C-alpha cells in the first residue's frame, strides 16, 4: 500500500515514477526534481519536472 504522505523520491519504482512534463524523462529520486501544483476545475493538478531548467522552459511556454 502506498502511503500518500511519503516524501517524493522515497520508495518509488521506476514504473511509478513521474515523467518530466518538459523533456519526458523519468524522475527517480532526482535531487533536482521540481513539482508544480495548481487548482483546475476544483481538483489539484500536478506537473513534475526533472530540473529547474525544464520547469523554466515550461514556464516560458505558458
Ligand atoms: Zn526534464
Task: Summarize the entry for a quick read.
The chain contains one helix and two strands, in the order ββα. Helix content is 16%, strand content 23%. The structure holds zinc ion.
Describe this structure in words.
With 62 residues, the chain is α+β, with helices and mostly antiparallel strands. The chain has one domain. The protein is built from one helix and two strands. The chain has a two-stranded antiparallel sheet. It is globular and about 30 Å long. The protein starts with 33 loop residues before the first strand and ends with a helix. The model has no long low-confidence stretch (mean pLDDT 84). The structure holds zinc ion (ZN). Zinc ion binds at residues 20, 22-23, 25, 49-51, 54.
Question: Numbering strands along the chain, what is their spatial order in the largest sheet?
Answer: 1-2
Instruction: Give me the secondary-structure category.
Output: alpha+beta
Shape: globular
Largest sheet composition: 2 strands, antiparallel
Total domains, how many? 1
Query: What is the radius of gyration computed over CA atoms, rounded to a whole number of angstroms?
Result: 12 Å
Alpha-carbon distance between the two ends: 36 Å
Query: Please, what is the average pLDDT?
Result: 84
Number of helices: 1
Q: Characterize the quaternary organization of these chains.
A: single chain
Please provide the ordered H/E string of secondary-structure elements.
Answer: EEH
